[in-house]
Amino acid sequence: MQDQNHHDAIVLGAGFGGLYALKKLRDELGLKVRLFDKASGIGGTWHWNRYPGALSDTESFVYCYSWDKELLQEWDFSTRYLTQPQILAYLEHVVDRHQLRPDIQLDTAVTQAHFDEAANVWRIVTDRGERFTAQFLVTAVGLLSATNIPDIKGRDTFRGELHHTGQWPADVQFDGKRVGVIGTGSTGTQVITSVAPLARHLTVFQRSPQYSVPVGDGPVTPEYVASVRRDYDKIWTQLKDSVVAFGFEESTVPAMSVSPAQRQAVFEKAWATGGGFRFMFETFSDIATDEQANLAAQDFIRGKIAQIVKDPETARKLTPHDLYAKRPLCNNDYYAVYNRPNVSLVDVKAHPITEITPDGVKTADGIEHPLDMLIYATGFDAVDGNYSRIDLRGRQGLAMKDHWKAGATSYLGVSTAQFPNLFMVLGPNGPFTNLPPSIETQVEWITEMVRDVNAQGKHTVEPTAAAEADWTRTCNDIAHMTLFPRAESWIFGANIPGKRNAVYFYLAGIGAYRQKLAEVQRQGYAGFEFD
Ligand code: FAD
Ligand code: NA7
Known about the structure:
Layout: E1 6-12, H1 16-28, E2 33-36, H2 45-48, E3 55-59, H3 69-74, E4 81-83, H4 84-97, E5 104-105, E6 110-116, E7 121-126, E8 131-139, E9 161-164, E10 178-182, H5 186-195, E11 201-206, E12 212-213, H6 222-240, H7 260-273, H8 276-282, H9 291-308, H10 312-318, E13 329-330, E14 343-347, E15 353-357, E16 360-363, E17 368-370, E18 373-376, E19 391-393, H11 400-403, E20 422-424, E21 430-431, H12 435-455, E22 461-463, H13 465-479, E23 505-506, H14 510-522, E24 528-530
Parallel strand pairs: 1-2, 1-8, 2-5, 6-19, 8-20, 9-18, 10-11, 10-18, 11-14, 12-13, 21-23
Antiparallel strand pairs: 3-4, 6-7, 7-8, 15-16, 16-17, 22-24
Helix pairs in contact: 1-12, 12-14
The chain binds flavin-adenine dinucleotide and ligand NA7.
Protein backbone atom coordinates (compact mmCIF):
# COMPACT_ATOMS: atom_id res chain seq x y z
CA MET A 1 0.00 0.00 0.00
CA GLN A 2 1.30 3.44 -0.85
CA ASP A 3 2.32 5.52 2.14
CA GLN A 4 -0.20 8.39 2.38
CA ASN A 5 2.44 10.61 3.90
CA HIS A 6 4.91 10.16 1.07
CA HIS A 7 4.88 12.74 -1.71
CA ASP A 8 6.91 13.19 -4.83
CA ALA A 9 7.43 16.80 -3.83
CA ILE A 10 6.72 18.95 -0.80
CA VAL A 11 6.52 22.68 -1.31
CA LEU A 12 6.90 25.26 1.46
CA GLY A 13 5.15 28.61 1.08
CA ALA A 14 1.87 29.65 -0.51
CA GLY A 15 3.06 32.87 -2.14
CA PHE A 16 3.74 33.52 -5.83
CA GLY A 17 6.58 30.95 -5.75
CA GLY A 18 5.03 28.03 -3.91
CA LEU A 19 1.68 28.24 -5.72
CA TYR A 20 3.33 28.10 -9.12
CA ALA A 21 5.61 25.26 -8.03
CA LEU A 22 2.56 23.27 -6.91
CA LYS A 23 0.80 23.96 -10.20
CA LYS A 24 3.77 22.99 -12.39
CA LEU A 25 4.91 19.90 -10.53
CA ARG A 26 1.38 18.57 -10.08
CA ASP A 27 -0.28 19.46 -13.36
CA GLU A 28 2.61 19.33 -15.79
CA LEU A 29 4.66 16.47 -14.34
CA GLY A 30 1.74 14.63 -12.74
CA LEU A 31 3.50 14.41 -9.38
CA LYS A 32 1.90 13.97 -5.98
CA VAL A 33 2.58 17.30 -4.30
CA ARG A 34 1.68 18.85 -0.96
CA LEU A 35 2.17 22.49 -0.06
CA PHE A 36 2.49 23.77 3.52
CA ASP A 37 2.27 27.31 4.79
CA LYS A 38 2.36 28.42 8.39
CA ALA A 39 -0.04 31.25 7.52
CA SER A 40 -3.79 30.89 7.93
CA GLY A 41 -4.33 31.92 4.30
CA ILE A 42 -2.60 31.77 0.94
CA GLY A 43 -0.74 34.75 -0.55
CA GLY A 44 2.62 34.82 1.27
CA THR A 45 3.75 38.46 1.43
CA TRP A 46 0.24 39.58 0.53
CA HIS A 47 -1.33 37.56 3.32
CA TRP A 48 1.00 38.92 6.00
CA ASN A 49 1.51 42.57 4.99
CA ARG A 50 -1.97 44.02 5.52
CA TYR A 51 -0.83 47.32 6.97
CA PRO A 52 -2.55 50.46 5.70
CA GLY A 53 -0.92 51.66 2.50
CA ALA A 54 0.55 48.27 1.54
CA LEU A 55 1.11 48.53 -2.20
CA SER A 56 3.29 46.84 -4.78
CA ASP A 57 5.72 49.31 -6.32
CA THR A 58 5.89 47.16 -9.45
CA GLU A 59 3.23 48.42 -11.85
CA SER A 60 0.01 46.39 -12.03
CA PHE A 61 0.53 45.12 -15.56
CA VAL A 62 3.66 43.18 -14.61
CA TYR A 63 3.02 42.30 -10.96
CA CYS A 64 1.34 39.03 -11.89
CA TYR A 65 2.07 35.68 -13.48
CA SER A 66 2.81 35.66 -17.21
CA TRP A 67 2.09 31.94 -17.70
CA ASP A 68 -1.71 32.02 -17.57
CA LYS A 69 -2.42 33.73 -20.88
CA GLU A 70 -6.18 33.59 -20.53
CA LEU A 71 -6.05 35.12 -17.08
CA LEU A 72 -3.93 37.96 -18.43
CA GLN A 73 -6.80 38.76 -20.79
CA GLU A 74 -9.48 38.43 -18.10
CA TRP A 75 -8.02 39.87 -14.91
CA ASP A 76 -8.88 43.52 -14.61
CA PHE A 77 -7.02 46.37 -13.00
CA SER A 78 -7.95 50.01 -12.84
CA THR A 79 -4.97 51.64 -11.14
CA ARG A 80 -1.31 51.90 -12.04
CA TYR A 81 -0.31 49.93 -8.94
CA LEU A 82 -2.01 47.18 -6.97
CA THR A 83 -2.87 47.36 -3.29
CA GLN A 84 -2.41 44.42 -0.94
CA PRO A 85 -6.10 43.40 -1.03
CA GLN A 86 -6.04 43.42 -4.85
CA ILE A 87 -2.93 41.23 -5.06
CA LEU A 88 -4.34 38.84 -2.48
CA ALA A 89 -7.62 38.63 -4.42
CA TYR A 90 -5.63 37.85 -7.57
CA LEU A 91 -3.71 35.02 -5.90
CA GLU A 92 -6.92 33.62 -4.33
CA HIS A 93 -8.42 33.60 -7.81
CA VAL A 94 -5.39 31.77 -9.24
CA VAL A 95 -5.68 29.14 -6.49
CA ASP A 96 -9.36 28.54 -7.26
CA ARG A 97 -8.98 28.71 -11.03
CA HIS A 98 -6.29 26.01 -10.98
CA GLN A 99 -7.86 23.97 -8.15
CA LEU A 100 -4.76 24.24 -6.01
CA ARG A 101 -6.56 24.36 -2.64
CA PRO A 102 -6.95 20.59 -2.06
CA ASP A 103 -3.16 20.21 -2.06
CA ILE A 104 -2.46 23.14 0.26
CA GLN A 105 -2.26 22.71 4.02
CA LEU A 106 -2.37 26.03 5.88
CA ASP A 107 -1.64 26.81 9.54
CA THR A 108 1.26 24.37 9.32
CA ALA A 109 4.88 25.33 9.78
CA VAL A 110 7.51 22.89 8.64
CA THR A 111 9.95 22.85 11.54
CA GLN A 112 12.31 20.12 10.43
CA ALA A 113 13.51 18.76 7.09
CA HIS A 114 16.31 16.20 7.09
CA PHE A 115 17.69 14.44 4.03
CA ASP A 116 17.82 10.67 4.60
CA GLU A 117 20.76 9.43 2.54
CA ALA A 118 19.89 5.75 2.90
CA ALA A 119 16.40 6.20 1.48
CA ASN A 120 17.09 9.26 -0.71
CA VAL A 121 14.10 11.13 0.72
CA TRP A 122 13.47 14.27 2.66
CA ARG A 123 11.97 13.56 6.12
CA ILE A 124 9.75 16.42 7.11
CA VAL A 125 8.17 17.30 10.47
CA THR A 126 5.55 19.98 11.04
CA ASP A 127 4.63 21.99 14.12
CA ARG A 128 1.53 19.79 14.38
CA GLY A 129 3.77 16.78 14.88
CA GLU A 130 2.93 15.28 11.48
CA ARG A 131 5.65 13.47 9.55
CA PHE A 132 6.01 13.32 5.78
CA THR A 133 8.55 12.13 3.27
CA ALA A 134 9.24 13.46 -0.21
CA GLN A 135 11.72 12.92 -3.01
CA PHE A 136 11.96 16.66 -3.68
CA LEU A 137 11.71 19.62 -1.35
CA VAL A 138 10.90 23.01 -2.84
CA THR A 139 11.38 25.92 -0.46
CA ALA A 140 9.49 29.01 -1.57
CA VAL A 141 9.69 30.49 1.92
CA GLY A 142 10.01 34.11 0.81
CA LEU A 143 12.94 36.50 0.80
CA LEU A 144 11.11 39.24 2.69
CA SER A 145 9.15 37.11 5.10
CA ALA A 146 10.98 36.50 8.40
CA THR A 147 10.17 39.66 10.36
CA ASN A 148 12.87 41.68 12.11
CA ILE A 149 11.89 43.08 15.49
CA PRO A 150 14.91 44.87 16.94
CA ASP A 151 15.91 43.86 20.41
CA ILE A 152 15.36 47.21 22.11
CA LYS A 153 15.54 47.36 25.90
CA GLY A 154 12.08 47.15 27.47
CA ARG A 155 10.35 46.09 24.26
CA ASP A 156 8.01 43.73 26.11
CA THR A 157 6.94 46.32 28.66
CA PHE A 158 4.92 48.53 26.28
CA ARG A 159 1.28 48.73 27.43
CA GLY A 160 -0.18 50.00 24.17
CA GLU A 161 -0.79 48.18 20.89
CA LEU A 162 2.30 46.74 19.26
CA HIS A 163 2.39 45.67 15.60
CA HIS A 164 4.95 44.64 13.01
CA THR A 165 3.91 45.57 9.47
CA GLY A 166 4.79 42.06 8.26
CA GLN A 167 2.39 40.40 10.73
CA TRP A 168 -0.44 42.87 10.59
CA PRO A 169 -3.67 41.84 12.34
CA ALA A 170 -7.21 42.55 11.10
CA ASP A 171 -9.09 45.64 12.18
CA VAL A 172 -6.52 48.04 13.63
CA GLN A 173 -8.05 51.44 14.48
CA PHE A 174 -6.05 54.66 14.62
CA ASP A 175 -8.71 57.22 15.58
CA GLY A 176 -7.64 59.44 18.45
CA LYS A 177 -4.42 57.49 18.98
CA ARG A 178 -0.83 58.60 19.35
CA VAL A 179 1.01 56.29 16.99
CA GLY A 180 4.76 55.73 16.68
CA VAL A 181 6.48 54.17 13.66
CA ILE A 182 10.05 52.84 13.83
CA GLY A 183 11.54 52.52 10.34
CA THR A 184 11.42 54.54 7.15
CA GLY A 185 12.07 51.93 4.46
CA SER A 186 9.64 50.99 1.73
CA THR A 187 7.13 49.73 4.27
CA GLY A 188 7.65 52.51 6.81
CA THR A 189 7.12 55.24 4.23
CA GLN A 190 3.91 53.56 3.02
CA VAL A 191 2.53 53.17 6.53
CA ILE A 192 3.54 56.70 7.54
CA THR A 193 1.74 58.40 4.65
CA SER A 194 -1.37 56.27 5.20
CA VAL A 195 -1.62 56.51 8.97
CA ALA A 196 -0.81 60.23 9.27
CA PRO A 197 -4.33 61.37 8.25
CA LEU A 198 -5.95 58.78 10.56
CA ALA A 199 -4.04 59.15 13.83
CA ARG A 200 -4.26 61.88 16.43
CA HIS A 201 -0.50 62.16 16.34
CA LEU A 202 2.19 60.28 14.46
CA THR A 203 5.79 60.15 15.67
CA VAL A 204 8.29 58.78 13.16
CA PHE A 205 11.52 57.32 14.54
CA GLN A 206 13.96 57.66 11.63
CA ARG A 207 17.38 56.04 11.69
CA SER A 208 18.40 56.86 8.12
CA PRO A 209 16.96 59.62 5.96
CA GLN A 210 15.73 58.21 2.65
CA TYR A 211 15.73 59.07 -1.02
CA SER A 212 12.11 58.68 -2.10
CA VAL A 213 10.48 59.69 -5.37
CA PRO A 214 6.75 59.87 -6.13
CA VAL A 215 5.08 56.55 -6.91
CA GLY A 216 2.70 58.13 -9.44
CA ASP A 217 -0.28 55.96 -8.59
CA GLY A 218 -3.66 56.76 -10.04
CA PRO A 219 -6.40 55.41 -12.27
CA VAL A 220 -5.62 53.90 -15.66
CA THR A 221 -8.07 53.98 -18.52
CA PRO A 222 -9.80 50.93 -20.03
CA GLU A 223 -7.98 51.79 -23.27
CA TYR A 224 -4.64 51.49 -21.50
CA VAL A 225 -5.61 48.09 -20.05
CA ALA A 226 -6.78 46.95 -23.50
CA SER A 227 -3.48 48.01 -25.06
CA VAL A 228 -1.51 46.15 -22.39
CA ARG A 229 -3.56 43.02 -23.06
CA ARG A 230 -2.97 43.32 -26.76
CA ASP A 231 0.77 43.76 -26.26
CA TYR A 232 1.33 41.21 -23.53
CA ASP A 233 3.46 38.86 -25.64
CA LYS A 234 5.80 41.72 -26.53
CA ILE A 235 5.77 43.03 -22.96
CA TRP A 236 6.88 39.72 -21.43
CA THR A 237 9.50 39.14 -24.12
CA GLN A 238 11.06 42.55 -23.47
CA LEU A 239 10.79 42.20 -19.71
CA LYS A 240 12.39 38.74 -19.53
CA ASP A 241 15.35 40.03 -21.49
CA SER A 242 15.76 43.22 -19.46
CA VAL A 243 17.66 43.95 -16.25
CA VAL A 244 15.19 44.78 -13.49
CA ALA A 245 12.08 43.28 -15.15
CA PHE A 246 9.84 46.20 -14.29
CA GLY A 247 8.28 46.47 -17.76
CA PHE A 248 10.29 49.40 -19.13
CA GLU A 249 13.47 49.70 -21.18
CA GLU A 250 16.46 50.56 -19.01
CA SER A 251 18.31 53.65 -20.19
CA THR A 252 21.55 53.27 -22.13
CA VAL A 253 22.55 56.92 -21.68
CA PRO A 254 25.21 57.78 -19.06
CA ALA A 255 24.11 60.67 -16.84
CA MET A 256 27.23 62.76 -17.46
CA SER A 257 26.97 62.42 -21.23
CA VAL A 258 24.22 65.03 -21.34
CA SER A 259 24.18 68.68 -20.25
CA PRO A 260 23.09 69.65 -16.71
CA ALA A 261 19.88 71.15 -18.16
CA GLN A 262 19.08 67.95 -20.06
CA ARG A 263 19.80 65.89 -16.94
CA GLN A 264 17.47 68.04 -14.89
CA ALA A 265 14.76 67.65 -17.51
CA VAL A 266 15.11 63.85 -17.51
CA PHE A 267 14.91 63.72 -13.71
CA GLU A 268 11.91 66.11 -13.68
CA LYS A 269 10.10 63.88 -16.17
CA ALA A 270 10.81 60.78 -14.09
CA TRP A 271 9.68 62.60 -10.93
CA ALA A 272 6.42 63.52 -12.66
CA THR A 273 5.92 59.97 -13.99
CA GLY A 274 6.68 58.26 -10.69
CA GLY A 275 8.24 54.91 -9.82
CA GLY A 276 11.42 54.16 -7.88
CA PHE A 277 12.93 51.70 -10.34
CA ARG A 278 12.06 54.00 -13.23
CA PHE A 279 13.86 56.86 -11.49
CA MET A 280 16.98 54.77 -10.90
CA PHE A 281 17.13 52.74 -14.12
CA GLU A 282 15.01 54.43 -16.81
CA THR A 283 16.56 57.91 -16.48
CA PHE A 284 20.23 57.06 -17.00
CA SER A 285 22.26 53.91 -17.40
CA ASP A 286 24.75 54.46 -14.60
CA ILE A 287 23.03 55.83 -11.51
CA ALA A 288 23.62 52.55 -9.70
CA THR A 289 27.20 52.18 -10.90
CA ASP A 290 28.84 55.59 -11.24
CA GLU A 291 29.43 57.96 -8.32
CA GLN A 292 28.99 61.16 -10.31
CA ALA A 293 25.77 59.95 -11.88
CA ASN A 294 24.57 58.85 -8.48
CA LEU A 295 25.44 62.26 -7.03
CA ALA A 296 23.37 63.95 -9.71
CA ALA A 297 20.34 61.86 -8.73
CA GLN A 298 20.99 62.53 -5.04
CA ASP A 299 21.24 66.28 -5.63
CA PHE A 300 18.00 66.29 -7.56
CA ILE A 301 16.10 64.51 -4.77
CA ARG A 302 17.72 66.69 -2.08
CA GLY A 303 16.51 69.73 -4.03
CA LYS A 304 12.96 68.35 -4.00
CA ILE A 305 13.07 67.81 -0.22
CA ALA A 306 14.15 71.41 0.27
CA GLN A 307 11.25 72.60 -1.90
CA ILE A 308 8.62 70.38 -0.30
CA VAL A 309 9.34 70.40 3.43
CA LYS A 310 8.40 73.71 5.05
CA ASP A 311 10.20 73.48 8.39
CA PRO A 312 13.97 73.81 7.71
CA GLU A 313 14.97 71.71 10.72
CA THR A 314 12.65 68.85 9.63
CA ALA A 315 13.97 69.19 6.08
CA ARG A 316 17.52 68.94 7.40
CA LYS A 317 16.72 65.76 9.32
CA LEU A 318 14.97 64.24 6.30
CA THR A 319 17.79 64.97 3.88
CA PRO A 320 20.07 62.02 3.07
CA HIS A 321 23.73 62.56 2.24
CA ASP A 322 24.84 59.01 1.56
CA LEU A 323 24.73 57.10 -1.73
CA TYR A 324 21.42 56.54 -3.50
CA ALA A 325 21.96 52.79 -3.59
CA LYS A 326 19.31 50.92 -1.64
CA ARG A 327 16.25 49.32 -3.24
CA PRO A 328 14.74 52.56 -4.61
CA LEU A 329 11.75 53.91 -2.70
CA CYS A 330 8.69 55.57 -4.13
CA ASN A 331 5.70 56.95 -2.40
CA ASN A 332 2.82 59.34 -2.62
CA ASP A 333 3.75 62.55 -0.82
CA TYR A 334 6.29 61.04 1.54
CA TYR A 335 8.18 64.25 2.31
CA ALA A 336 5.01 66.38 2.32
CA VAL A 337 3.56 64.29 5.14
CA TYR A 338 6.00 66.05 7.50
CA ASN A 339 4.23 69.38 6.82
CA ARG A 340 1.21 68.05 8.71
CA PRO A 341 0.84 69.50 12.21
CA ASN A 342 0.16 66.04 13.68
CA VAL A 343 3.39 64.44 12.42
CA SER A 344 6.75 64.72 14.15
CA LEU A 345 10.11 63.33 13.16
CA VAL A 346 12.64 61.98 15.65
CA ASP A 347 16.18 61.51 14.40
CA VAL A 348 17.29 58.34 16.17
CA LYS A 349 20.76 58.48 14.69
CA ALA A 350 21.32 61.71 16.60
CA HIS A 351 19.37 60.51 19.64
CA PRO A 352 19.16 56.69 19.61
CA ILE A 353 16.22 54.89 21.14
CA THR A 354 17.37 53.90 24.61
CA GLU A 355 14.30 52.11 25.85
CA ILE A 356 10.72 51.18 25.17
CA THR A 357 8.71 52.00 28.27
CA PRO A 358 5.14 51.03 29.24
CA ASP A 359 4.00 54.40 27.87
CA GLY A 360 6.14 54.99 24.79
CA VAL A 361 9.65 55.28 23.45
CA LYS A 362 12.57 56.97 25.21
CA THR A 363 15.44 58.50 23.26
CA ALA A 364 18.98 59.37 24.34
CA ASP A 365 18.12 63.07 24.75
CA GLY A 366 16.00 61.99 27.75
CA ILE A 367 12.66 62.59 26.00
CA GLU A 368 9.91 60.00 26.43
CA HIS A 369 7.58 60.04 23.41
CA PRO A 370 4.14 58.98 24.69
CA LEU A 371 2.32 56.47 22.46
CA ASP A 372 -0.86 54.41 22.34
CA MET A 373 0.42 52.28 19.47
CA LEU A 374 3.91 51.38 18.29
CA ILE A 375 4.45 50.06 14.77
CA TYR A 376 7.64 48.25 13.84
CA ALA A 377 8.31 48.91 10.15
CA THR A 378 11.73 47.45 10.73
CA GLY A 379 11.80 45.03 7.84
CA PHE A 380 12.95 41.46 7.52
CA ASP A 381 15.76 39.05 8.12
CA ALA A 382 15.90 38.91 4.35
CA VAL A 383 16.71 36.12 1.91
CA ASP A 384 17.92 33.35 4.24
CA GLY A 385 15.91 34.41 7.33
CA ASN A 386 13.31 31.67 7.00
CA TYR A 387 15.99 29.03 6.34
CA SER A 388 17.61 29.67 9.70
CA ARG A 389 14.21 29.16 11.33
CA ILE A 390 13.90 25.56 10.05
CA ASP A 391 16.02 22.64 11.25
CA LEU A 392 17.20 21.93 7.72
CA ARG A 393 19.86 19.26 7.23
CA GLY A 394 21.49 17.85 4.11
CA ARG A 395 24.03 15.06 3.67
CA GLN A 396 25.67 13.65 6.81
CA GLY A 397 23.39 15.73 9.00
CA LEU A 398 24.94 19.00 7.77
CA ALA A 399 22.81 21.85 9.16
CA MET A 400 22.02 24.67 6.73
CA LYS A 401 23.02 27.22 9.35
CA ASP A 402 26.51 25.64 9.48
CA HIS A 403 26.69 25.29 5.71
CA TRP A 404 25.89 29.00 5.46
CA LYS A 405 28.02 30.11 8.44
CA ALA A 406 30.15 32.32 6.21
CA GLY A 407 27.07 33.80 4.46
CA ALA A 408 24.23 32.19 2.52
CA THR A 409 25.26 30.96 -0.91
CA SER A 410 23.78 28.90 -3.72
CA TYR A 411 24.33 27.69 -7.22
CA LEU A 412 22.11 29.78 -9.52
CA GLY A 413 19.89 30.92 -6.65
CA VAL A 414 18.04 27.60 -6.65
CA SER A 415 20.25 24.90 -5.13
CA THR A 416 23.10 24.39 -2.71
CA ALA A 417 25.80 21.71 -2.39
CA GLN A 418 25.23 18.85 0.07
CA PHE A 419 21.47 19.39 -0.04
CA PRO A 420 20.27 16.94 -2.70
CA ASN A 421 16.85 17.36 -4.28
CA LEU A 422 16.37 20.68 -2.51
CA PHE A 423 15.22 23.50 -4.76
CA MET A 424 14.92 27.06 -3.51
CA VAL A 425 12.70 29.69 -5.08
CA LEU A 426 14.37 33.09 -4.55
CA GLY A 427 17.23 31.49 -2.66
CA PRO A 428 20.41 33.50 -2.01
CA ASN A 429 22.12 34.95 -5.07
CA GLY A 430 19.07 34.88 -7.26
CA PRO A 431 18.17 37.86 -9.47
CA PHE A 432 17.33 41.29 -8.03
CA THR A 433 14.26 42.26 -10.04
CA ASN A 434 10.54 42.68 -10.09
CA LEU A 435 10.10 39.27 -8.51
CA PRO A 436 7.19 37.37 -10.12
CA PRO A 437 9.08 36.97 -13.44
CA SER A 438 12.18 35.71 -11.62
CA ILE A 439 10.03 33.36 -9.54
CA GLU A 440 8.49 31.99 -12.75
CA THR A 441 11.89 31.59 -14.36
CA GLN A 442 13.14 29.57 -11.41
CA VAL A 443 10.01 27.44 -10.99
CA GLU A 444 10.00 26.57 -14.68
CA TRP A 445 13.67 25.65 -14.59
CA ILE A 446 13.23 23.57 -11.40
CA THR A 447 10.30 21.74 -13.02
CA GLU A 448 12.41 20.84 -16.03
CA MET A 449 15.22 19.67 -13.79
CA VAL A 450 12.82 17.44 -11.80
CA ARG A 451 11.38 16.08 -15.03
CA ASP A 452 14.86 15.26 -16.34
CA VAL A 453 16.01 13.65 -13.08
CA ASN A 454 12.98 11.37 -13.16
CA ALA A 455 13.23 10.69 -16.89
CA GLN A 456 16.83 9.60 -16.51
CA GLY A 457 15.94 7.35 -13.59
CA LYS A 458 18.24 9.23 -11.23
CA HIS A 459 17.54 9.47 -7.52
CA THR A 460 19.22 12.72 -6.59
CA VAL A 461 20.66 15.89 -8.01
CA GLU A 462 22.74 18.56 -6.28
CA PRO A 463 25.30 21.16 -7.32
CA THR A 464 29.01 20.67 -6.77
CA ALA A 465 30.77 22.81 -4.19
CA ALA A 466 32.97 24.16 -6.99
CA ALA A 467 29.98 25.32 -9.06
CA GLU A 468 28.51 27.01 -6.02
CA ALA A 469 31.81 28.75 -5.21
CA ASP A 470 32.01 29.92 -8.80
CA TRP A 471 28.49 31.36 -8.77
CA THR A 472 29.19 33.06 -5.43
CA ARG A 473 32.29 34.68 -6.93
CA THR A 474 30.33 35.78 -9.98
CA CYS A 475 27.63 37.39 -7.81
CA ASN A 476 30.29 39.10 -5.69
CA ASP A 477 32.14 40.44 -8.69
CA ILE A 478 28.99 41.81 -10.27
CA ALA A 479 27.79 43.38 -7.01
CA HIS A 480 31.09 45.18 -6.59
CA MET A 481 30.76 46.74 -10.03
CA THR A 482 27.77 48.61 -8.57
CA LEU A 483 27.38 51.11 -5.74
CA PHE A 484 24.87 48.91 -3.89
CA PRO A 485 27.36 47.19 -1.52
CA ARG A 486 28.35 50.62 -0.21
CA ALA A 487 24.89 51.36 1.20
CA GLU A 488 23.72 49.59 4.34
CA SER A 489 20.52 47.71 3.58
CA TRP A 490 18.78 44.35 3.70
CA ILE A 491 20.11 43.58 0.21
CA PHE A 492 23.45 42.79 1.87
CA GLY A 493 22.16 41.65 5.27
CA ALA A 494 23.32 44.92 6.84
CA ASN A 495 19.97 45.59 8.56
CA ILE A 496 20.26 42.76 11.09
CA PRO A 497 22.72 43.21 13.96
CA GLY A 498 25.22 40.36 13.89
CA LYS A 499 24.20 39.10 10.45
CA ARG A 500 27.11 38.56 8.14
CA ASN A 501 27.34 41.28 5.54
CA ALA A 502 27.39 39.38 2.27
CA VAL A 503 26.22 39.52 -1.32
CA TYR A 504 22.73 38.01 -1.50
CA PHE A 505 21.79 38.80 -5.11
CA TYR A 506 22.82 38.30 -8.70
CA LEU A 507 22.75 41.90 -9.89
CA ALA A 508 23.28 41.35 -13.63
CA GLY A 509 19.56 41.23 -14.36
CA ILE A 510 16.89 38.78 -15.40
CA GLY A 511 17.96 38.56 -19.07
CA ALA A 512 21.52 37.50 -18.22
CA TYR A 513 20.19 35.16 -15.53
CA ARG A 514 17.83 33.41 -17.92
CA GLN A 515 20.64 33.00 -20.43
CA LYS A 516 22.84 31.45 -17.77
CA LEU A 517 20.13 28.97 -16.74
CA ALA A 518 19.56 28.01 -20.38
CA GLU A 519 23.28 27.52 -20.94
CA VAL A 520 23.64 25.31 -17.83
CA GLN A 521 20.73 23.21 -19.06
CA ARG A 522 22.13 22.97 -22.58
CA GLN A 523 25.39 21.70 -21.16
CA GLY A 524 23.57 18.81 -19.47
CA TYR A 525 23.15 20.68 -16.20
CA ALA A 526 26.76 21.76 -15.88
CA GLY A 527 27.76 22.11 -12.24
CA PHE A 528 25.26 19.50 -10.99
CA GLU A 529 25.90 15.92 -9.91
CA PHE A 530 23.32 13.17 -10.37
CA ASP A 531 23.14 9.95 -8.42
P1 FAD B 1 6.33 34.92 0.05
O1 FAD B 1 5.20 35.58 -0.60
O2 FAD B 1 7.09 35.67 1.07
O3 FAD B 1 5.77 33.57 0.69
C1 FAD B 1 6.54 32.77 1.54
C2 FAD B 1 5.60 31.96 2.41
O4 FAD B 1 6.36 30.93 3.04
C3 FAD B 1 4.96 32.75 3.54
O5 FAD B 1 3.58 32.75 3.43
C4 FAD B 1 5.43 32.05 4.81
O6 FAD B 1 4.42 31.98 5.79
C5 FAD B 1 5.79 30.67 4.29
N1 FAD B 1 6.77 29.97 5.11
C6 FAD B 1 8.00 30.40 5.47
N2 FAD B 1 8.62 29.47 6.22
C7 FAD B 1 7.76 28.45 6.34
C8 FAD B 1 7.81 27.20 7.01
N3 FAD B 1 8.89 26.82 7.70
N4 FAD B 1 6.74 26.38 6.95
C9 FAD B 1 5.62 26.74 6.24
N5 FAD B 1 5.52 27.92 5.60
C10 FAD B 1 6.57 28.75 5.64
N6 FAD B 1 8.31 42.37 -4.94
C11 FAD B 1 8.23 42.93 -6.15
O7 FAD B 1 8.73 42.35 -7.12
N7 FAD B 1 7.58 44.11 -6.34
C12 FAD B 1 7.00 44.76 -5.31
O8 FAD B 1 6.42 45.82 -5.51
C13 FAD B 1 7.07 44.21 -4.01
N8 FAD B 1 6.51 44.81 -2.96
C14 FAD B 1 6.63 44.25 -1.72
C15 FAD B 1 6.06 44.90 -0.62
C16 FAD B 1 6.17 44.34 0.63
C17 FAD B 1 5.53 45.02 1.80
C18 FAD B 1 6.91 43.16 0.83
C19 FAD B 1 7.09 42.56 2.20
C20 FAD B 1 7.47 42.51 -0.25
C21 FAD B 1 7.32 43.04 -1.53
N9 FAD B 1 7.87 42.41 -2.64
C22 FAD B 1 7.76 42.98 -3.88
C23 FAD B 1 8.55 41.12 -2.51
C24 FAD B 1 7.54 39.95 -2.46
O9 FAD B 1 7.88 39.24 -1.31
C25 FAD B 1 7.62 39.12 -3.73
O10 FAD B 1 7.23 39.90 -4.84
C26 FAD B 1 6.75 37.87 -3.75
O11 FAD B 1 5.48 38.12 -3.23
C27 FAD B 1 7.44 36.73 -3.03
O12 FAD B 1 6.72 35.54 -3.19
P2 FAD B 1 7.28 34.18 -2.58
O13 FAD B 1 6.30 33.14 -2.88
O14 FAD B 1 8.67 33.97 -3.02
O15 FAD B 1 7.39 34.42 -1.01
P1 NA7 C 1 13.71 47.90 5.24
O1 NA7 C 1 13.89 48.49 3.92
O2 NA7 C 1 14.77 47.00 5.79
O3 NA7 C 1 13.49 49.11 6.25
C1 NA7 C 1 13.50 48.93 7.65
C2 NA7 C 1 13.55 50.27 8.32
O4 NA7 C 1 13.62 50.06 9.73
C3 NA7 C 1 14.79 51.07 7.94
O5 NA7 C 1 14.45 52.41 7.82
C4 NA7 C 1 15.71 50.84 9.13
O6 NA7 C 1 16.61 51.88 9.34
C5 NA7 C 1 14.73 50.77 10.25
N1 NA7 C 1 15.25 50.07 11.41
C6 NA7 C 1 15.60 48.76 11.48
N2 NA7 C 1 16.04 48.48 12.71
C7 NA7 C 1 15.97 49.64 13.42
C8 NA7 C 1 16.30 49.99 14.76
N3 NA7 C 1 16.82 49.10 15.59
N4 NA7 C 1 16.09 51.26 15.15
C9 NA7 C 1 15.59 52.17 14.28
N5 NA7 C 1 15.26 51.90 13.02
C10 NA7 C 1 15.46 50.64 12.59
O7 NA7 C 1 12.35 47.09 5.36
P2 NA7 C 1 10.95 47.39 4.64
O8 NA7 C 1 9.95 46.47 5.23
O9 NA7 C 1 10.65 48.83 4.67
O10 NA7 C 1 11.19 47.01 3.16
C11 NA7 C 1 11.79 45.77 2.78
C12 NA7 C 1 11.44 45.45 1.38
O11 NA7 C 1 10.08 44.98 1.35
C13 NA7 C 1 11.44 46.58 0.40
O12 NA7 C 1 12.68 46.85 -0.14
C14 NA7 C 1 10.43 46.14 -0.62
O13 NA7 C 1 11.04 45.22 -1.48
C15 NA7 C 1 9.43 45.44 0.20
P3 NA7 C 1 17.83 52.12 8.31
O14 NA7 C 1 17.18 52.77 7.12
O15 NA7 C 1 18.36 50.73 7.99
O16 NA7 C 1 18.78 52.95 9.03
